Amino acid sequence: MFATGIENSYPTIQGGRVRVDEMAKCRHYEKWRTDFDLVEELGLHVLRYGPPLHRTWLGPNRYDWSFADTTFGDLEKRDVTPIVDLCHFGLPDWLGNFQNPDFPILFADYARDFAKRFPWVQLYTPVNEMFITANFSAGLGWWNEQLASDKAFVTALKHVVKANVLAMKAILKLRPDAIFVQSESTEYFHADSPAAIKPAEIANSRRFLSLDLNYGRRVDSEMYEYLMDSGMTREEYHFFLGNSLKQHCIMGNDYYVTNEHRVFADGRVIPAGEVFGYDEITWQYYGRYRLPVMHTETNFAQGPNGDEAVFWLWKQWANVLRVRNDGIPIVGFTWYSLTDQVDWDTALREDNGRVNALGLFDLDRNIRPVGEAYRKIVREWNDVLPTQSVCLRVPVFPPSQTELALRQRWRPGSHGARVEPTAPANAEAGH
């Protein structure tokens, strides 16, 4: 599944007074039809996309579906398969922030009502980058609640992951063949010196917490003590162990040049750049969870030479082919996003209005060199990969085949979608 995305980030900063709405900054609300045209121009049939939560979810069981109805109706007509991003880094003002214990149950209601309104949607990312959401909001103090403590981080984390789990359960009741693409940042922390080994080890255990909880995997003893010491109860921990929906999931992993870190003895962390790369870090996550993988986010800024992003795309694609050929069942690749983004250079912490040349198209919707290069990859590889790889048969149905999917869903003995390996060499992974 070759894909791109239209980011719907909307965290708050400055004590909640300013909302960073990336769709507004990138003019998607005005240019959504043109943006969907560009997706098709690239030869893509899959789009990471979601309605802006803060504009759609007005209160418990209260919604403004107008923009979602228009945009998702258009995607359905185009037969573009969305991977629906329901929560991307922020909450509506009436819910406050990720410290709110009411968020998980209320969010499950929102997910249920979305799935009821758009029954043809099959692929979901209920909560995007759960680890980053909790860490940037409550570990580093950058977004939303802007707290920076272990207790605040664990509180946000348990609420975010519980919301994700409950949303999956709610969606599966309406669409048992739903598949969840857990887009998560894949990180690694390198020790700068022998004295830094211990803090690096802790950071490398902590990076797995969101997916461990989401997939019902027992955490290691040190992380269990960390969770208990930081306010999680045994009952809360056992909720995650008893509600695993791993069989319905694809592990989406995001990799940028900022995903590897250098750790010093005093606990300081600075960017390390690309040291191991996507290949090695993907093996670490796949070895832990043994799930099919989709490369769900990457990008790189177009610099003064004009080919910097093109070279990064080539490297990422080479890594995808490497892990595929080495036996990881990888089912998709995504350049994120469709257009340039705004204030990504400060991780959305500052409202500067600075355009970052990260997209396949600029904000005037002119194609960039990386857009041309990606279109070429899609054209050349789209028909080759399904027939030359031993991979997964992912039961993904585009909007035009929803009726077929529903008929198969209710056939005798059907139990919804399970993402499982198949032996034939011509197994097809989506489209």
From TrEMBL:
Query: InterPro entries recorded for this chain?
Result: GH (IPR017853), Glyco_hydro_1 (IPR001360), Glycosyl_Hydrolase_39 (IPR051923)
What domain of life does the UniProt record list for this protein's source? Bacteria
The record's annotation in SUPFAM superfamilies points to: (Trans)glycosidases (SSF51445)
Keyword Hydrolase, does the record have it?
Answer: yes
Q: How far does the signal peptide extend, from start to end residue?
A: none
Q: Does the keyword Hydrolase apply?
A: yes
- Alphabetical GO biological process terms: carbohydrate metabolic process
Report the GO molecular function annotations.
Answer: hydrolase activity, hydrolyzing O-glycosyl compounds
Keywords, in A-Z order: Hydrolase
Name under which the protein is recorded: Glycoside hydrolase family 1 protein
Gene3D superfamilies, per database record: Glycosidases (3.20.20.80)
**Which stretches of sequence are listed as region Disordered?**
411-431
